[in-house]
Amino acid sequence: MDRQPGFDPLSWAVQDDRARGVFRVNRRAFVDAQVLELERRHIFERCWLYVGHESEVASPGRFVSRNVGGKPILMNRDSGGRINVFFNACMHRGAQVCRETSGQARNFTCPYHGWVYGDDGALRHQPIPESYSAACNANGELDLKRVPKSASYCGFVFLNFDAGAQSLEDYLAGAREYLELASLHGEKGMTVLPGSQSYSARANWKLLQENSADGYHADTTHASYFDYIKSREGAVKNLYAAKGFGRVRNLGNGHSVSESLNGTPWGRPTARWMPSWSESLRGALEDVHRRMIDRLGEEKATFICHGDRNLLIFPNLVVNDVTALTIRTFYPLAPDYFEISAWGLAPIDEAPALRDLRMRNYLEFLGPGGFATPDDQEMLESCQRGYAAMGGADWNDLSRGMASEDGPNPAKQDELQMRTFWRRWKSLLADGSRVAA
How far is Cα 199 from Cα 114, in angstroms, rounded to an integer? Predict the structure, then answer.
């Protein structure tokens, strides 16, 4: 897409005045098609993006296929045990070689002309092979194409469409600590639960990244959930309204985390009991905590079991470790429309009663029909509708807590995680503009 004359989002998109403690984002960044095109080029084509979890391809032959960063991707484990990440496109005419979302396969056969690829991506068969010269695939040019870069960290598999990108570990920066915590819930490792949730929102994708660790909105947006918890559990202090409840951390490279310890009014399947749950579950959860102390030490075990974390990995990965452990990704199809995918993550060796509790806890709050997600979706879409008022109301204000954001514990209700995202967003678009120039 050609830029309009004089189009430069960096000159108007973000006001970051640290001296005055003022941070604002122009609402054009949420509605302009040219901004989305720049994001596709300079963010989604350059950043590490989440593909899936190693447990989804736990044994040779297992595969999953999904869209990542707007491209069809196939991830599998081949007969040699290697995890591969391919573009899901036949090298003949481009048809997708895998049309199932998951399964088991030793080969992938293109449904258009019957080209067959092995589970290692190598071209195994072409109909009427004598019609091709030896040069056609002399150096594997017709094998399935791997993405330029792929790597795994603590079981989380990522890709990058930029062959010159920094390593995944360097990119993750301080987010590594929190992915490690998520990987330690189970003694025998973690597994993605069967099934997934897919839904969409008529809003800009960046609004969900802002919302996902926003402690400021819970008191009002999720008032019905707090009322429900109070009626179920008895008197519950709304700690979200209290300054100093929890903290937000800038983890580098646009990543951030919102976390708290022993304060939220809900229970956790790993391993925080609530009075409305049975005494048998209480014993089971206490046993999980004891075993984790033996394995990890009391401080880390208590932090995992009794704390809550919302991890944001730039640009579009959220790991919600709250009422349950949930992985969310999302990708824009238009400035005012994006699609969301979510998966549950759980200990491999979790007891059936605790697994059932986990699923119920997830669906109650984070599921597409739960207390939180529909509320959040309505607010994101309401924001998008409100952006039609530009010309009279042009700026989002994200200044809350800015004056003290460099202190030791920025508050959970502050907007540091949003400013962290937008500063990285601006720097990547600025880098892209310099390259384009």
Answer: 33
